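Kindly review both lines to help learners:
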Amino acid sequence: MPRNRRVARRTDALTRASVRRGAGTRPAGAEDTPAEEPPGRMRYLRSPATWLVGILLAVVTVTFQDVLAASVKTILPLDRVPDRLSPQNAIDVVEVRDVKDFGFYLVRDGADGKLLEELSSADWWQNRKAVDVDDAYWMITLQGRAAQQVRITDVVPELEGGSCKAPLRGSLVNAPSQGVMDVIPLEVAVDSPQPRLKASKKDGKAAEPYFTGPGAKHITLNQNETEAFIVHATSEDGYCRWRYRVRYEVGGSTAEMTIGAPGGKPFELTGRLGDMSGYRNVYFPPLACRYQGSHMPDTWYRQTGAEYARDRKGSEEPLCPKT
C-alpha cells in the first residue's frame, strides 16, 4: 500500500449536509419561547394617560353644551329653539281669582234652598255659588318664563257666541262692601259692541284705552317676574260669557294665549233686571236697609222680588223687614 495516503480524521463538527438531512439541534423547550405581547390597540387602552384624556374630553363636551345652549337662548329668536322655549310657552298663568267682595250676585232658581243660612258663613263667599251682577273683579297674575323679556301688547275679551244674551233670572244677593286689592286697575264693558280694556281713573275722568290709542301702554315680564292686575268687567243689559285673548311679543316673535276663569271655565257676568220684581227672592244685610234698634244684628233678610221692589219705590232707604 502506498505510504503517502492520508487518513481522514473523525470529528464531532456539523456539516452542511448533516444540517440538510435533519441531523443537528434539538427543538427549543416551552420555557425558551418568548411571551406573546398584547396588540398595540389594547396596550393603548390600558394606558393611564388614555383614561385621563377621556375624562378631560367628557368635561369639555358637557361644558361646551351648556355654553352653546346659553348662547342659543340669547342670540336666536324663541321660535328657533326647542319647544320648551317656544313663544307659546313664554307666559305662565299663576292665578286667576275672583276678588269681588261687595255688590250684587245672582243665584239661579232652585239653588237657594238654604241660602239664608249659608250667607252668614264664610263657605258661601269662598265657594261663590253665584254669578256676578252688574260688575265683576278678577285678579290675574302672570309670570314670565322666557329668557328674553315678554311684552304684552293687548288683552281682548272674546265673547262666547259673539255677543251677550238676556240677563239671568233667579234670586239676587246684595252683599256689603269690603274693598279690593291695590294692583293695576283695568276695566272693560263686556256687553259693548267692541269691548276693549281701559285704564281706570280715580279722579272721575273717563277711562282711556290701555293697550291702544295715542297713550298705549304695555305690560312687560322678565324671566321669573310676576305681574298682577285686576280687570273690572261691567255689563248693563246682558248675560255674558267670555275669555281673554292675550297678545304678546318675545324674542322677535309674536304669539297669543287664552286666559279663562278657574277650572278652564269662561268668565261670566249678568246685568241686573230693570224690574226688581222679576227676581224670585232678594237677600240683603242690615246695611242695605234702616235698622231700628241700638245694635245692628249679624243677620240676613229675605224678601220676594215683588216685596223688595215695592219697598224701594220711594227715594228713602226702606226699613229693615221684621224677622
Summary: DSSP finds six helices and 16 strands in the chain. The radius of gyration is 45 Å. The CA atoms of residues 135 and 234 lie 4 Å apart. Residues 1-25, 75-84 have pLDDT under 50 and may be disordered.
